[in-house]
Amino acid sequence: MERLFGVVLGLILAVASSAHDSCTCATNKWAVCAQDSPGNCTCRLAGSDHPVDCSTLTSKCFLMKAEMIPLKEKRFWRPPHGLSDSDGIYNPDCEDSGVFKARQCNQSSTCWCVNTAGVRRTEKGDRSLSCSELVRTRWIYIELTHKRSSRAFDVPDVAKALTQLFESRYKLHPKYIAAIKYDPPLIQIRLDQNKKPRWDVDIADVAYYFEKDVNNDSIFHSNSQLTVSVNGDALAIEKLWIYYVDEKPPAFCMKELAAGISAVVTVVVLTVGIGIAVLLILRWLHTRKYKKFESKEMKEIKTPSLELP
Asked: 27: which residues sit within 8 A by CB, 6+ positions away?
């Protein structure tokens, strides 16, 4: 009887442990999950009460906010590398929907305006700064280089592999991948998303997840290393650059532009001035040498020749 009771208890503990392990968020390792009822797993962002939809990508604004949470509040999850570096990560203000608020401020009351990707698009000011709208980031240009292999990949194969990667791993519909160009070892990817339906992922979120994967700091709960293969051969990514293009041009202050133009003009004027000075000095030296030579000749002509009787 005691043996039977031990077996039953072991099965119960095994099932409970399995249920606890399965209550995780596949698309967000920073989500805190709990099984509030049998078969119902609820996940929320670390340090906030925002629920997380683990069937799709978490918004970039919520992710950046989670990255700023101290380690002890993340339930011992590994903090991202960006926390110890000044790489542009800040604690953003997010709408309940997960999008960035148009105006962002830090603890020192310095404020700036951002786009839908959370990238600053104005000069920094104080809390009197007004951001009338959240400008949409419509295009994202991704440039990356890969390690040179024994043979170059075919362009269609590279485009197919990357399209499948963005569709399967990041849930991005292929219609938002406007173009993929390949000039070994450089790969250029252009994402175009004029309007985002509620059921589609945002290209800014996709770019952020992809950047984290390339930097070996995956947001996915499995934390699996990103692997890209082209016809069975590994495409090892070395470097990555991401550029954001908004529907409207950035509103940076003309003062900074004027300072840059003034610096360029100063350099040009100094260069021309030095060149003219050098030419004048060379001309003066040449003229001096010519006059000296001419004076010597005149002396020889004026000196009378002595004839012997």
From this structure: 54, 55, 56, 57, 58, 219, 220, 221
The predicted-structure confidence for 209-222, as pLDDT tens digits, reads as follows: 999 999 988 999 87
User: Residue 293 is encoded by which pair of tokens?
Assistant: 């030579």
pLDDT, tens digit, 9 for 90 and up, residues 155-183: 999 999 999 999 999 999 999 999 999 98
pTM for the predicted model, two decimal places: 0.70
Pull the structure tokens for residue 53. Answer: 């939809």
Note the pLDDT of residue 29: 87
CB 58 within 8 A of CB 98: yes
Among 275, 243, 217, 265, which Cα is nearest to 121's?
Answer: 243
Looking at the DSSP bridge assignments, the partners of residue 230 are 233
Coil vs helix vs strand at 211? helix
Query: Is 170:210 a contact under the CB 8 Å cutoff?
Result: yes
Encoding tokens for residue 101? 């608020």
φ/ψ (deg, to 5) at 275: -60, -45
The pLDDT of 225-243, averaged and rounded, is 89
H helical segments located in 68-128: none
Nearest to 153 by CA among 90, 231, 71: 231
Peptide bond into 38 cis (omega under 30): no
Widest Cα–Cα separation across the chain: 158
Closest CA to 183 of 157, 147, 145: 145
> How many whole angstroms from its chain centre is CA 21?
33
Q: Can you tell me the distance from the alpha carbon of 137 to that of 117, in angstroms, rounded to the nearest whole number?
A: 6
Q: What DSSP line would sit under 39-51, residue for residue?
A: TEEEEEETTS--B
Q: Measured between alpha carbons, how far is 125 from 105 in angstroms, rounded to an integer?
A: 9
